[in-house]
Amino acid sequence: MEDQPTLVGLTSRKLRDYLPETLEEAEELAASIERAVQQETGHGVRDLCVFVDDEAVVLKGRCDSYYCKQLAQHVAMCLSPGERLINGIEVL
């Protein structure tokens, strides 16, 4: 059976090659993404939570503009290349 393509155009086997191997590495990546997003958006994302698992990097929180949401996504993508990113930040 062949691996199915993911949203970022990588096979799921290749995607796993980019993901952190341990829980500690996943937590460190999540913390670094969270710090960078808050710094770059001027703390514009309220209740920001970043989750990293074996499938994707997930952003959750709230902000006031689509620009802030897009900026948060861009920062997260730069820090997690090759990983699937789910931007669950709500614009209020």
Describe the structure.
By secondary structure, this protein is of the alpha+beta class. Helices cover 42% and strands 23% of the residues. It has three helices and three strands. A three-stranded mixed β-sheet has the order 1-2-3. Residues 1-16 have low confidence and may be disordered.
The number of helices is 3
Shape: elongated
| CATH topology-level fold name | hypothetical protein tt1634
Level-1 CATH class name? Alpha Beta
Q: Name the structural class.
A: alpha+beta
List the uncertain runs: 1-16
Q: How are strands sequenced across the largest beta sheet?
A: 1-2-3
Instruction: Output the helix-strand order.
Output: HHEEHE
Furnish the topology, listing elements before pairings.
Layout: H1 12-18, H2 23-40, E1 46-52, E2 57-63, H3 66-79, E3 85-91
Parallel strand pairs: 2-3
Antiparallel strand pairs: 1-2
Helix pairs in contact: 2-3
Key terms:
single chain; 3 helices; disordered N terminus; 92 residues; hypothetical protein tt1634; alpha+beta; 42% helix; three-stranded mixed β-sheet; 3 strands
